[in-house]
UniProtKB/TrEMBL annotation:
Transmembrane segments annotated in the record for this chain: 28-49
Name of this chain's protein: Thiol-disulfide oxidoreductase DCC family protein
UniProt cross-references to Pfam families, sorted A to Z: DCC1-like (PF04134)
Native organism: Agrilutibacter solisilvae
Keyword Cytoplasm found: no
Lineage of the species this protein comes from: Bacteria, Pseudomonadati, Pseudomonadota, Gammaproteobacteria, Lysobacterales
Swiss-Prot/TrEMBL keywords: Membrane, Transmembrane, Transmembrane helix
GO MF term set: protein-disulfide reductase activity
InterPro entries from the UniProt entry: DCC1-like, DCC_oxidoreductase
């Protein structure tokens, strides 16, 4: 089956990196691959850790082995990270499609974020690309990736 608009071709993500939650009885979690040295991207991850009460999302920095493997497996250049990647239910999303799915997936009032999908995808993604190209200049860059707290370490892929 061909990917829908806003999706990338999916290679078996389990082969690319372990996406299971660490608890033995936990279901497979959605994985977000993010830029681990971007201050804005780290803020996004902290936001999700705070609001994802069901621990639905796991994270992989683009600079980590798992993050690089997942980007590469889905046709994205791990050395030129210009997009985040969401892997969920055997499918992959990038750019604003990924953002809308992630925020809507938090449940409750956050589901209203799905209304952003009424904006034309080319417009949404053009705005996203401007932000992505300028994220270091506007928000800053760290010398090293985010180090999760002991409380959240199980939510990060190596």
């Amino acid at each position: 089956m061909a990917p829908e608009a806003g999706q990338v071709a999916v290679v078996d993500p389990v082969q690319a990196a372990d996406v299971r939650a660490t608890a033995p009885d936990a279901p497979a979690a959605a994985v977000i691959v993010f830029d681990g040295v971007c201050v804005l991207c780290n803020g996004w991850v902290h936001f999700l850790l705070r609001h994802d009460r069901r621990a639905r999302y796991r994270f992989a920095a683009m600079q980590s082995g798992s993050g690089r493997a997942l980007l590469d497996a889905h046709g994205l250049d791990p050395d030129a990270p210009a997009s985040l990647l969401l892997l969920e239910h055997g499918r992959a999303w990038t750019d604003t499609d990924a953002i809308v799915r992630v925020i809507g997936g938090l449940g409750g009032a956050w589901r209203c974020a799905r209304l952003l999908s009424v904006l034309p995808r080319p417009l949404r993604n053009r705005l996203y690309r401007v932000l992505a190209r300028n994220r270091y200049r506007w928000f800053g860059r760290r010398d090293a990736c985010l180090v999760p707290t002991a409380e959240h370490r199980h939510r990060f892929l190596p």
